[in-house]
Write a sequence for this structure.
């Protein structure tokens, strides 16, 4: 019967999607973890500056992308667990242990998940740069590079080409380097985000790049870097820096 | 648009254009052929790429062959890339409410005659794309289409630069296509690249990942 | 010795409420308030809200204040369900009182703390699938620092020099950004007031759930103050010239 109102069940949706993109690349003795700073819902920009990348310890940085409320809550809880670890053991949790901690924390919410893609970057106990990427329910692996978020599909194949040298053949008698130097990595990160900003509406406004250097590594490769700000608590261990850049705001 | 899979990209260089596609033909996730070409010559310096539903690709290839032949006979001259782009657009818009499920990509060189007494003229790069109902997109840099369109956008935006010579353009479009389709389950299984210059068209079949 | 999880935070396996399955949750707003606007200016924060509480399309209560002072440094403004807003203000007031009488340390919660607390309450309720159906702006000034932030029914939070909820996010936020961005530290109180008044007028012209009576809250070094209701001066002469949609099509 037309006009007859059907009884309708209005269901509350506890999730939303807040756009943005994150990215991390591991070097031999450093890691770069980056994210844009736009937060959006649908076609509205909620803010031009909402950080998605967080320093956890002097050697671990976590990037979080997806549903912003879940992301912030998750980071808060990870930081809390790391503080408890510090109080119990009088040292910072090793990177691979943080990775496993994140996996268990995500899987604990298997049936009401944190709607969040995590990328953890930093320095492993053996001094190597490392990137761990996670799905929302805790599947994870260690990788050399990973993009996630709204522009993952734009950035990841570019990284395959520029970091893993996919579809490229080395000159006769030569091989591809297995780790790129820091300046090259930073250029690739900036290019990735300017490209994503150009072609994806949810990416833009600002870029935050965290650089984690292994213990004893010089600042080699950061000489020409404008406005790097140090966040580490000591200078004789691993060191963390943040660099900010503007992205297009349209 | 996801049924058969496939992707196409076209790029502008210095006095040259390139157009490239993968070779996969699928039936959903199942690959049924790895020699399915999606790019067709229209004139000496003009190519048309069609992605989308394979049956519509075949239908429209024949339709545009017929239409360009009719045009050539009626006008007694070759069709220009820009005229052809509008022919594609109006042909697709005829089916506005029951469209062909394809996204066309056009790449060619367009002749621009010189002013009186200043030599013959020049061949300038021309690319265009359209959606399934014929909304034209005249890009100055590159056009992408198909199931790996978002990936192609990302890589092309990172690799492309203005005024590349034919060899550089070939490398750029090949790398763009291969790295994009390697991240797309519905595209890949080999690729073809056409590089169009004033004097010749170089067509190369690329070896790429077959998984 | 190996404990990394403080005892009082251990997950507990106590039985759940036996009747929890039967509990029904409020899942739609009933009496609602429309947009809240806010901006940063030279000496503090300014918020604006009209005085209407609607019942569907009915303009039900026309003298409701949707701006409330919380503690000595903060004002919150709410759109969405007004009963949920009243519950929130009651909760926050009791938190302020509790803090005062139990701690007796003369410390008062500031805008940052109130926003964080509110965000946790909102996120906690959404996680129970029983949300408080509001979008709330928190504005404050303390120790020479301006604070302005957003929180909604999902627990999503963000800060920005200008904020707007509801229709204001579409209609007023672009105007606010144009008027304020880059001028946060130079705008005078009078200029800020004028910007908000102009935005409230545009909203009254275009938002069918608004009314031409509004209040402005100012929070600066001398604390919060909420104005008496202000009548909007409007002129509808321009409406004559509108052609091409609505009832008038020729």
């Amino acid at each position: 019967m037309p006009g007859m109102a059907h009884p309708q069940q209005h269901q509350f949706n506890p999730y939303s999607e807040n756009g943005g993109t994150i990215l991390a690349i591991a070097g031999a003795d450093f890691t770069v973890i980056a994210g844009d700073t736009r937060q959006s819902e649908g076609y509205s920009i909620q803010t031009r500056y909402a950080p998605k990348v967080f320093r956890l310890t002097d050697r671990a940085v976590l990037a979080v992308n997806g549903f912003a409320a879940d992301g912030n809550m998750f980071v808060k809880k990870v930081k809390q667990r790391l503080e408890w670890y510090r109080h119990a053991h009088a040292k910072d949790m090793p990177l691979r242990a943080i990775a496993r901690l994140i996996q268990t924390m995500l899987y604990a919410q298997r049936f009401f998940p944190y709607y969040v893609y995590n990328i953890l970057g930093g320095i492993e106990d053996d001094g190597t740069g490392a990137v761990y990427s996670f799905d929302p329910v805790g599947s994870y692996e260690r990788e050399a590079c990973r993009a996630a978020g709204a522009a993952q599909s734009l950035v990841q194949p570019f990284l395959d080409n520029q970091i893993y040298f996919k579809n490229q053949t080395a000159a006769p008698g030569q091989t591809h380097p297995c780790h790129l130097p820091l300046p090259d990595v930073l250029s690739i990160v900036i290019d990735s985000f300017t490209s994503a900003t150009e072609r994806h509406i949810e990416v833009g406004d600002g870029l935050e790049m965290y650089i984690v250097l292994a213990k004893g590594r010089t600042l080699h490769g950061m000489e020409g870097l404008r406005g790097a700000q140090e966040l580490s608590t000591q200078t004789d261990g691993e060191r963390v820096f943040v660099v900010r850049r503007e992205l297009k705001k349209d | 648009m996801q049924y058969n899979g496939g992707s196409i990209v076209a790029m502008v260089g210095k006095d040259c254009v390139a157009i490239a596609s993968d070779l996969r033909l699928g039936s959903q996730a199942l690959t049924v052929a790895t020699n399915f070409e999606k790019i067709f010559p229209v004139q000496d310096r003009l190519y048309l790429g069609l992605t989308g539903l394979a049956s519509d690709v075949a239908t429209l290839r024949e339709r545009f062959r017929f239409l360009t032949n009719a045009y050539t006979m009626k006008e007694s001259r070759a069709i220009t890339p820009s005229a052809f782009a509008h022919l594609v657009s109006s042909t697709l818009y005829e089916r506005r409410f029951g469209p062909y499920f394809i996204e066309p990509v056009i790449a060619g060189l367009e002749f621009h005659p010189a002013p009186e007494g200043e030599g013959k003229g020049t061949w300038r790069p021309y690319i265009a794309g359209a959606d399934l109902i014929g909304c034209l997109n005249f890009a100055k840099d590159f056009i992408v289409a198909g199931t790996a369109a978002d990936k192609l956008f990302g890589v092309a935006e990172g690799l492309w630069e203005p005024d590349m010579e034919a060899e550089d353009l070939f490398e750029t479009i090949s790398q763009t296509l291969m790295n994009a389709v390697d991240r797309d389950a519905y595209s890949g299984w080999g690729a073809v690249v056409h590089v169009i210059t004033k004097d010749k068209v170089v067509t190369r079949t690329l070896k790429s990942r077959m998984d | 010795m190996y404990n990394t999880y403080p005892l009082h935070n251990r997950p507990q396996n106590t039985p759940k409420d036996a009747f929890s399955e039967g509990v029904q949750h409020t899942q739609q707003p009933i009496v609602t308030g429309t947009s809240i606007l806010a901006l940063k200016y030279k000496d503090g924060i300014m918020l604006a809200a009209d005085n209407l509480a609607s019942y569907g399309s009915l303009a039900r209560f026309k003298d409701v204040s949707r701006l409330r002072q919380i503690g000595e440094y903060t004002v919150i403004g709410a759109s969405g369900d007004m009963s949920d807003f009243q519950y929130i203000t009651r909760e926050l007031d009791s938190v302020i009182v509790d803090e005062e009488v139990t701690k007796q340390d003369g410390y008062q919660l500031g805008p940052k703390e109130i926003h964080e607390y509110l965000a946790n309450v909102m996120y906690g309720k959404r996680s129970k699938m029983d949300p408080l159906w509001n979008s709330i702006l928190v504005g404050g000034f303390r120790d020479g620092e301006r604070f302005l932030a957003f929180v909604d029914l999902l627990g999503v939070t963000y800060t920005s020099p200008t904020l707007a909820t509801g229709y204001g996010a579409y209609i007023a936020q672009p105007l606010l950004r144009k008027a304020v961005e880059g001028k946060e530290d130079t705008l005078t109180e009078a200029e800020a007031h004028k910007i908000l008044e102009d935005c409230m007028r545009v909203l009254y012209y275009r938002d069918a759930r608004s009314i031409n009576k509004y209040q402005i809250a100012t929070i600066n070094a001398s604390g919060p103050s909420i104005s008496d209701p202000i009548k909007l001066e409007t002129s509808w002469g321009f409406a004559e010239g509108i052609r091409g949609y609505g009832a008038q099509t020729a």
